[in-house]
């Protein structure tokens, strides 16, 4: 940031709001700040998870960045039957989430979870968490989400879509609500942004 000693920056740790801090040391390799006063309260997002199947690296980075900007509280990469890439660098994705929170002036940083198998997650799906399952097969049908302010998750499939087995697991899950994002098949990264927008405009605060 090219700040020198005596200058003030705003800092946050993801849990305690925004704080003014004075630069007391600004070396090439290290610096030091003196945290002074809270200037913004902590603002946590609604209890919304984003579940998505990782795709190419740059597009996965995009999904994490946009999810953090759009107020997802937890970002969960999932392995599905047709997942394109199962290797993720969680630390890298977490760093993207921090940068996105900084960029949009947020005080909350979503946690990026370890990758987990979708079916394993569905086996232990919390009873009180609704799941907005984005299904390109429903093209044209409008979203009919229950106005429930409790915990939610949004699920986006991989480029190859969901397998029949996954579809029947989702159909059997009472907390799952299938929604369409319109009549066109969107790329997974576009679908993630569209789905979070739909959720935020319908149920977000
Ligand atoms: N299997 C599909 C195919 O090849 O025809 C494409 C899957 S799409 C690229 C990736 C994911 O984005 C889907 O699994 C779904 O979750 C979401 N998606 C894309 N378009 C959608 C739409 N119009 N409505 C709902 N979800 C959509």
UniProtKB/TrEMBL annotation:
Its EC number is 2.1.1.193. One of its GO terms (molecular function) is rRNA (uridine-N3-)-methyltransferase activity. GO terms for biological process: rRNA base methylation. Keywords: Cytoplasm, Methyltransferase, rRNA processing, S-adenosyl-L-methionine, Transferase. Signal peptide: none annotated. The keyword Membrane does not apply. Pfam families: Methyltrans_RNA. It is found in: Cytoplasm. It comes from the Bacteria. NCBIfam families: PRK11713.3-5 (NF008696), RsmE family RNA methyltransferase (TIGR00046). Specifically methylates the N3 position of the uracil ring of uridine 1498 (m3U1498) in 16S rRNA. Acts on the fully assembled 30S ribosomal subunit. Belongs to the RNA methyltransferase RsmE family. This is Ribosomal RNA small subunit methyltransferase E.
